[in-house]
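new request in #modeling-help
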Amino acid sequence: MAHEHAHDDAHGHDDHAHGPDKGIMRWIKTTNHKDLGTLYLFFSFTMFFIGGLMSLVIRAELFQPGLQFVDPELFNQFTTMHALVMIFGGVMPGFVGLANWMVPMMIGCSDLALPRVNNWGFWLLPFAFTMLLSTFFLPGGAPAGGWTIYPPLVLQTGNSFPILIFAIHLMGISSITGAINIVVTILNMRAPGMTLLKMPLFVWTWLITAYLLIAVMPVLAGAVTMLLTDKYFGTSFFNAAGGGDPVMFEHIFWFFGHPEVYIMILPAFGIISSIIPTFARKPLFGYASMVYAVASIAFLSFIVWAHHMFTVGIPLAGELFFMFSTMLIAVPTGVKVFNWIATMWGGSMTYETPMLFAIAFVFLFSIGGFSGLSLALAPVDFQYHNTYFVVAHFHYVLVPGAVFSIIAAIYYWIPKWTGRMYNETAGKWHFWLSSIFINVTFFPQHFLGLAGMPRRIPDYAVQFTDFNMVSTVGAFGFFVSQFIFIFNVLACCYGWFGRTRNVSNQVWEGATGLEWSVPSPAPYHTFEDQPLVGDDGMPVHGDAVAAAAH
Amino acid sequence: MASDAHATPNLSRYFVPAPSVWPFGLTVALILTVYGVSGYLEDRAIPTTALITAGVALALFIIFSWFRGVALESERGLYNDMVSRTYRWGMSWFIFSEVMFFAAFFGALFYARTLAIGWLGGEGEKGIITNSVLWPHFDPSWPSNGPGHVGGTFETVSPWKLPLVNTCLLLTSSVTITMAHHALKAAHRRACVLWMLATIALGSTFLYCQATEYMEAYKELNLTLGSGVYGSTFFMLTGFHGLHVTLGTIMMISITGRLLFGHFKPESHFGFEGVAWYWHFVDVVWVGLFIFVYIL
């Protein structure tokens, strides 16, 4: 391999080491993974804020029975858009932003494999979401048929219908290009010595997530295209009179939708698997089993989709198959939770903010996992389907699951990004308030669901009032607590606690991995030359390798 | 691979492209287009034609400029082996995503044929009631436009006329593009261009036949996009395939142009190979279509 590269080395230098453009054009034209990672994260932040405001409208309306603030149609628009904004605008871009920042630093390369495509993948998102959010101001309002966009209901959407479809197409293009970029970077651009089974878990989980994205986003694109032609071009895919079947949409949608669930949690597993060993000061317990567990979860995610559809009337054999395949997922997930706990066992633990969020993740995500296991039982699901129990379940895996992991990741890596340490006291306040309020918000929803309160309704029977009031108080408390986080992040970025960038390369005492071998803040192009990675995952004497290059 | 790299570290530097305005511009172009199309579909009072025209024109200009820029970078020798592998991996995964896109429509076809139509006709537990309550006289046979006879009575396209011709055309074109590839590797540029022209001619003839078939279907067979689930799956599958053939043909025309400009070297020509991979993919999809849509 080396001789093939000898002549390439002479080229490549010309087009190297570009500084960024000035002002706004830097962000419009940038091909740098760190710039784009920052853009993704700020975009994700904005979307969490907008989606959070929508959830406050929903919770305010549900504070007591009767209609207070919004009429039912507007309520439906808010529930639908809350989900779309949080899933496609908040969680997914948040993880892509983290991958942008960290994957090249973790595997020892200069940038993602396709930097211009990376720029495209990002900029599609703000435009697509502006377009989607603008539908609130169209006659007929925003889409209101639920984020699962089931026909025939969704086909009754007015002016905003084609905008919804095209926005999903554009988000799909963004996800697919982003995923291809990450897969190719990981498969092709690892530094010498960075073998597959030496890669940090965050890189592994993203490799598998990206594979899932490439496999299922096109299926969603196909599904929404069929909706579009059913509405405007007279096709009968989901029209029983023409020989189609509305349930077919649910199958196609959930063939996308269930892997999508893991797309939103696997990178979180990677983050937690990075943080816990650092603060337990022990290597990750069962590294290889973690990799196999993630791969098994990804495989199983393709054969469990109809557990979202137990009550539509699928044949008994289908109910049984999807029930048992779903319960199988508990096995690799159990392996992961066991390994995280075993990593902490006997470790020299300290409890900085990222670690607190990571431990909360393990505990609260497991609660979400257990409620998922209850829902996996087909006969039980007949009772719980479409109730607040389901809402409680997926919010437990998504908020103290996915969102906590993103928050933990930002606390963990922001010293590396900015060169400044966040404020630990504010971080701890943020953690405790978030953890308390998130449980105040979502735990009572389990009881509401078990008692029979249906989801996606603006009004309810009086006996549900108390728990709904508690839940609303929790939601407002959680939202307000996040201002501590915003303050802490901006303080790091803009140096409000002192402008000096005085964080060491390693930042955390127990941290290992390539990203901790470079200066904080990391240089604009992290590895101008490939490092040689040793068996411990750290670079083998950087100077010697650089000298050999010239 | 990484383990032998361990022994002899690969020390070449990376190719890092300069900041570029093309991706942002392409986003703007796409937004203009889809916003125009959504306005058109809903008859809204916005200048849809202007939006679509501006969007498509801008998109075409940017796609051309962006690819031209990449081709010129390649010809200037800026790309090393790592970039070459990046493009190979990237193209492979892109084709995989395309496969999954078609899988959605093939899935719809199989589901409708084997499950939905049967249930509507009274098969299985859930079918009995649907059938007896809603459509007691529905005969569940394929092809079908459903119990509502959506789109009226229609006939299907015979696989052994134009579709068979089209199968021969595409299979032949896969051979000719491979011949072109061999010629390029043997540094026989003239032969390569001739084989490419043959491939383009075959692709274009395919498109012509497909258009003829569509016209016959609409005019003589009363088979339309609105002919129930048969018409929907037939036209969506063959239509998206035709779109991909069109795209592939345009890609082949552009690489043939590059061949005439003296681009590509016998040992390094991924622009060519990428198009060839894409063309083989389009070919394989057609074989699937020929079997599952036309014959069975």
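bot summary: DSSP finds 18 helices and no strands in chain A.
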